[in-house]
């Protein structure tokens, strides 16, 4: 097997007694654990709560593994008797001289912005999924891939509300104490929005006495998140920066060498690059406003809201259809004749549920797909922007303690993150959040009926989406829609474009096909 590990931006590959490790490993790896028992190797992987990739060679076998969110992706292939393993999918593509993009994966990428499962945009190139490891047998020239994580358990927390909030608090304290230890005095840089998740990071660092913190936000001047972000940073006595986003800045970024390089190389033949933070961090870096050894800590979280979950589900088919409706939506299915792939992609989702250990709760099917696909391959993959600018990152709200806690919270408390919002407001504010204010339930009921009607009426719903798209072109808080020329933007709306990513996936596919790297 030819192994090529070249990506040392942000985090570097380090040799620990013959084991190549990238990221956070807080338990000494013993090579004898692999030789003695695969179960011991799996136990080692399970007991690491943070983010890592690992490659280990011995005479007969090669072992490689990624963490529970595959935050440092690894790719592999066997073709014509040759085996390859790399952290760079394009390097494997070059070894294969492969220019034939997989048709189904390409259609899926166009509809979602990422390729699900072990597939990439190229049929012969595979990737390790979240919570997987591989064993390559040199003598037989075969690769075996296994899951080592049971995401779900039958140990649902039968706590009352008060006990659940205490459990959330104790888990957060444990995770953030470890984060502070990892920071080791370095500057924590927080992309601070008006949402709960980024604000809880700022609050927990302050609560535990870590004050070397810089906060920033970005977007159109005057948008509501800017005000919320500034107020939070000032209340904690943290340095705060605002990076205004404008059409002129987006045009300059798109045409800059740094912007093109990131867009052209950050996809891993799997994911649409996440452009939201890159421009802001690049500007702060070039102005010397954040130190070179800073660690960026975005508010991505495993405490998902279950938005789109079909409460009246009957079976896995209902969950599959809900995922299709929610996530396969960047374009209308008729665009570029993608309708012919819809049934195959539905089957792909259904078959993915057979690969992991799920105990039977329907919401677990929904959650595991969200974690392993959308969040691992798109949302959390946004950290590639920080690495591209040579910064390290941490994702405290995605560490295993938080993930396992949220998995076992009863569904009634997970919906719309109700228990987390109540925890936040109880612990850190003196006011009750509007989303859980019982005095507003009457008003909520008044709009619930027409909202359901609109969602179920496809014609009305689609027309509202189109009107929102036009509104966003001039008024989006990030002002990024105007990267696209208005004529192309309107033509996209006619074909069912859903957001700025609808246009970017087309551009990303064209870049990959042309090998503009």
List keywords for this structure.
globular, Glutamine Phosphoribosylpyrophosphate, subunit 1, domain 1, 517 residues, 6-stranded antiparallel beta sheet, alpha/beta, 5-stranded parallel beta sheet, single chain
Describe the structure.
With 517 residues, the chain is an alpha/beta fold. It is 45% helix and 13% strand. The chain is built from 21 helices and 15 strands. Strand 12, helix 7 and strand 13 (239-244) form a beta-alpha-beta unit. Helix 4 runs antiparallel to helix 21 and helix 5 (161-183) crosses helix 17. The radius of gyration is 23 Å and the shape is globular. The two termini are 25 Å apart. Mean pLDDT is 87; it is low at 430-449.
Shape: globular
CATH class annotation of the domain at 2-103 and 119-147: Alpha Beta
Name the CATH homologous superfamily of the domain at 2-103 and 119-147: Aminohydrolase, N-terminal nucleophile (Ntn) domain
Largest sheet: 6 strands, antiparallel
> Low-confidence parts, pLDDT < 50 over ≥5 residues?
430-449
> What is the CATH architecture term of the domain at 2-103 and 119-147?
4-Layer Sandwich
- Helix count, DSSP H or I runs of 4 or more residues: 21
Brief overview, please?
The chain is of the alpha/beta class. Helix content is 45%, strand content 13%. The protein has a domain at 2-103 and 119-147: Aminohydrolase, N-terminal nucleophile (Ntn) domain (Glutamine Phosphoribosylpyrophosphate, subunit 1, domain 1, 4-Layer Sandwich), CATH 3.60.20.10.
